[in-house]
Amino acid sequence: MPHSLLWSLVLAVHIISIALWIGGIFYAVAILRPSLGLLDATQRTSIMLQTMSRFFKGLTHAIPTALISGWLLILHEGGFANAPWTVNAMQAFGIIMAGLFVRLYFGPFQKVRRAIRPQASAFDSIRTQMLIIMALGFLAILSACLSHPFV
Question: By the 8 A CB rule, do 67 and 98 touch?
Answer without folding.
Answer: yes
